[in-house]
Amino acid sequence: MLVLLPPSETKSPDGDGAPLDLAALGSPELTPVRETLVDALVGLAADPPAARAALGLSPGQDAEIGRNAALRTSPTTPAVQRYTGVLYDALDVRSMTRAQRARADRRLAVGSALFGLARATDPIPAYRLSAGAQLPGLPTLRTLWRPALGGLLAGTGELVVDLRSGGYQALAPVPGAVTVDVLSQRPDGSRTVVSHANKAHKGRVARLLATTTAEPDGVVRVRALLRRAGLHVEHDGGTALTLVLPPP
């Protein structure tokens, strides 16, 4: 099972690993696109106004441009520890037992605008690039990533649970992947999409899937696993699951 996580704009500044070595990352077929994007971000960092415009940053976020300038020289840390925020707080890999972490390292990967697919243990630096960015002189990220990344994800040979947000799913959709939508039920029975809580609950779902000793092979088994954990999960057919949060 491969559990695809969304990245986060916020990233830990920590790291004591060697500088970025693209050849050391998993999925070497993605290296050419990774090289193109790393070169583009490093070059763009030399022009802060252009970098702000391309990356959607304000002058107060110039430290993010500095991170991109140092992509090839700054220290790295495993991808699953690089990303921070609500989802990753709920995933909480640091609290996992050794056996749980070993399973999580095998199953988790992050859909990244810069690296395409970053496996949990891939050593990466802090960076700034979102799925909606448009880098000067290059095609859209969707155009760059879809041929190589789409083929990679379609050919994994294992169940894919895609928890990425829409912008990252669009970079390379995965046919047949299990998806999870999170809805909140109001006291009157109506339902609404949640935002902040969506990330937290997807983090909990990711933790359950990453650490279970079971090996679900389809949407029905995933649904059963989540229900056993006490979650209200609905399945109306196909590969989409709906996680329904009770009224507050």
From TrEMBL:
Transmembrane segments: none annotated. Pfam families: H2O2_YaaD. GO terms for biological process: response to hydroperoxide. One of its GO terms (cellular component) is cytosol. InterPro entries: YaaA (IPR005583). NCBIfam families: PRK02101.2-1. This is Peroxide stress protein YaaA. It comes from Geodermatophilus dictyosporus.
